[in-house]
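Standup notes
- HV: blocked on the assembly model, inputs below
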Amino acid sequence: MRVDVVSIFPEYFAPLDLSLIGRARANGVLQLAVHDLRTWTHDVHRTVDDTPYGGGPGMVMRPEPWGAALDALAPAEAPPPRLLVPSPAGVPFTQAMAYELAAESHLLFACGRYEGIDQRVLEHAATRMPVTEVSLGDYVLFGGEVAVLVMVEAVTRLLPGVLGNAGSLDEESHAHGLLEAPIYTKPPSWRGHDVPEVLRSGDHGKIARWRREEGLLRTAARRPDLLAALPADRLDKRDIAA
Ligand code: ADE
């Protein structure tokens, strides 16, 4: 997969050299390039922002550098990438969207700063490529950089060959619309707290049932919204009894 990121703070992306993402880049599963938006400015101050029309606080990112950046990274003659613009006003980023993005061949992330990017950049881009404004959650960050780190990590770990044990994708939280059950390792007793007996029973049917029930209980307590959104056919009779 090819991923391009445009930002006025390319240094934010240094962690993408580390660990499993660094390895995915080294072995070519992920071709990631970070670009400085100011490359596409032409004045001595390399200006990227200006005051908002209509008044109000803060500054807005000017359309010209963004237009030139998108022209360069998504040229009309090449297959268009999917453009993702992090914004607190975007649609929620979810595990389902991470799977959707992992199936794309080219993602282009545009990191806004200040109050955001002039909306015409997105309108114009949408005439040439799919554009999605995406929010990490109901809070406001300084800019899109941290959101892009999160999304690149969530997507990269779904690419074939990145995770050592792909089976863990099937068991983790959100894999089936539920939160994952608690997990334990050795020793069996630690500071007076014991590993649940069932996990040491060796009875894999009972263990799977216990995990399912703990996942349901956790989801009901912490994320009732997820439970409510679960299609009825994803719950069986034993789930409802639990
Ligand atoms: N930029 C600022 N806040 C954000 C958020 N919550 N999600 C994505 N991008 C953002």
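- HV (later): unblocked. The beta strands are 2-7, 31-36, 49-50, 60-61, 82-92, 106-110, 131-135, 189-190, 193-194. The CA atoms of residues 13 and 149 lie 7 Å apart.
- Next: hand off to the docking folks.
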